[in-house]
Amino acid sequence: MPLGLREIAAVVGGTVEGDAAVTVTAPPVLDGRRAEPGGLFVAVAGERADGHDYAAQAGRAGVVAVLGSRPTPLPTVVVDDVQAALQALAAHVVARLRRGGLTVAALTGSQGKTGTKDLLAAVLSGVAPTVAAADSFNNELGVPLTMLRAGQGTEFLVLEMGARRVGDIAALTGLVAPDVAVVLNVGQAHLGEFGSRAAIAEAKGELVRGLAPGGTAVLNADDPRVAAMRALTTGPVLTFGRAAHADVRVRSLTLDDRGRPSFTLRTADASARVALPLVGAHQALNAAAAAAAGLAAGVALEAAAPALASASLSKWRLEPRDLAGGATLLNDSYNANPDSTRAALDALAAVAGARRIAVLGAMLELGEESDAGHRAVGAYAAARADLVLAVGPGARPLAEGAGDRAVALAGNDAAVDWLRRNLAAGDVVLVKASRAAGLDEVAAALT
Question: pTM of the predicted model, to two decimals?
Answer without folding.
Answer: 0.93
